């Protein structure tokens, strides 16, 4: 029941009751004036006055109780607002779920506002931390490129000396290690720039086919690729970052397939209302259940020293920069599936 309805229900009887009583007394006096002498008029007036005073006092008490029942929630809202204004986001409150009226609705709105502010501030802190991490990663990637270039040149010279002298100086291992460090630097730089997207209208299928061809060129024959979907699909994407996203997903699928198994990676594209979905699924070993909640976290890897834990984190950040969503799940038929949903424009 709303506030004004309560006040009307309370005030109507408080006004009508004394009026009715006075009308009854006046009617009695009017109909039987001979029963009341002139010297007794003051007694009637006194009785009516006492009745009016008593009714007024009762009315004021009832009205005060009604106002207090409304004022207490409003005072609680004021206390909550003051606490929230100075940064408190866990102000306790008790709201009767069955309570109605403006005060109850206001308390519920304040509770919802507190929850929204708490989530907003948490998101803001996370965003600030991600931006700081990204800037640091970009700086580290930039700073180690020059030393790595020097080391790669030195590795090539060691390899030349190794060929001339016939002495094994482990140049191949040296060069491979430098290559891994350079790849890590590239991934650091890519992750740092993942959220800086430059979207242009492009044929997603063309980008996808080109990326599949590039990945296939560096593979053996134990993995086959299959594309399912339209011959063309136009959307606003950052072509370079989308291609790298797809490359990461393809490599992840390939690495999940044992070498002694005839591997199959299916890439499927579907068009929906205002969005398109990209599915990359394999017939590999699947994803351990305890790994799924962390699979897109930075620096989380199941590949030991051969993984950086940045590939899937990069995928997630690129997708989110495109205002999309990505999820990973196991397939009932075996293997894993990564599903990316992006807006077309």
Order of helices and strands: HHHHEHEEHEEHEE
Number of domains: 3
The total beta strand count reads 7
- Supply Rg: 39 Å
Overall 3D shape: elongated
The name of the CATH architecture of the largest domain is 2-Layer Sandwich
CATH topology heading of the largest domain: Heat Shock Protein 90
Structural class: alpha+beta
How large a portion of the residues is in β-strands, by DSSP E? 5-15%
Terminal residue distance: 47 Å
CATH superfamily of the largest domain: Histidine kinase-like ATPase, C-terminal domain
Q: Largest sheet, if any?
A: 5 strands, mixed
What is the mean pLDDT?
76
Number of helices: 7
Approximately how much helix is present in the residues? 55-70%
**Widest sheet: strand ordering:** 2-4-5-7-6
Name of the top-level CATH class of the largest domain: Alpha Beta
What does this structure look like?
- The structure is a single chain.
- The longest helix is centred in the middle third of the chain and has 64 residues, at 102-165.
- The chain has helices at residues 3-31, 41-85, 102-165, 171-192, 204-217, 239-255, 311-321; strands at residues 200-203, 223-228, 234-237, 263-272, 275-282, 325-330, 336-343.
- The model has no long low-confidence stretch (mean pLDDT 76).
- It has 345 residues and is α+β, with helices and mostly antiparallel strands.
- It has 3 domains: 3-88; 129-192; 200-343, Histidine kinase-like ATPase, C-terminal domain (Heat Shock Protein 90, 2-Layer Sandwich), CATH 3.30.565.
- The strands form 2 sheets. The chain has a 5-stranded mixed sheet with strand order 2-4-5-7-6, with helices on one face. The chain has a two-stranded antiparallel sheet with strand order 1-3.
- The two termini are 47 Å apart.
- A hairpin with a 5-residue loop joins β6 and β7 (336-343).
């Amino acid at each position: 029941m709303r506030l004004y309805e309560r006040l009307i229900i309370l005030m109507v009887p408080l006004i009508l009751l004394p009026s009715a009583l006075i009308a009854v007394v006046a009617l009695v006096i009017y109909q039987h004036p001979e029963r009341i002498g002139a010297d007794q008029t003051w007694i009637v007036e006194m009785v009516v006055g006492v009745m009016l005073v008593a009714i007024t006092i009762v009315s004021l008490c009832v009205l005060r109780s009604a106002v207090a029942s409304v004022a207490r929630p409003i005072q609680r809202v004021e206390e909550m607002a003051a606490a929230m204004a100075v940064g408190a986001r866990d102000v306790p409150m008790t709201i009767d779920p069955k309570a109605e009226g403006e005060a109850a609705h206001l308390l519920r709105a304040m509770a919802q506002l507190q929850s929204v502010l708490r989530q907003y501030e948490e998101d803001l802190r996370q965003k600030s931390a991600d931006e700081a991490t990204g800037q640091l990663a970009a700086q580290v990637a930039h700073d180690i490129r020059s030393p790595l270039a020097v080391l790669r040149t030195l590795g090539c010279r060691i390899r030349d000396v190794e060929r001339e002298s016939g002495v094994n100086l482990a140049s191949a291992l040296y060069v491979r290690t430098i290559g891994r460090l350079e790849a890590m630097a590239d991934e650091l730089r890519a992750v740092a720039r993942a959220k800086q997207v430059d979207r242009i209208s492009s044929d997603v299928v063309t980008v996808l086919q080109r990326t599949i061809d590039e990945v296939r060129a560096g593979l053996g024959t134990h993995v086959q690729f299959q594309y399912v979907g339209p011959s063309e699909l136009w959307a606003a994407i950052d072509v370079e970052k989308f291609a790298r996203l797809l490359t990461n997903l393809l490599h992840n699928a390939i690495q999940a397939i044992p070498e002694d198994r005839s591997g199959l990676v299916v890439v499927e594209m579907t068009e929906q209302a205002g969005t398109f979905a990209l599915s990359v699924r394999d017939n590999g070993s699947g994803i351990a259940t305890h790994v799924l909640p962390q699979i897109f976290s930075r620096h989380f890897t199941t590949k030991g020293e051969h993984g950086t834990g940045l590939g899937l984190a990069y995928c997630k950040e690129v997708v989110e920069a495109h205002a999309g969503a990505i999820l990973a799940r196991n397939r009932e038929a075996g293997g894993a599936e990564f599903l990316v949903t992006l807006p077309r424009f």
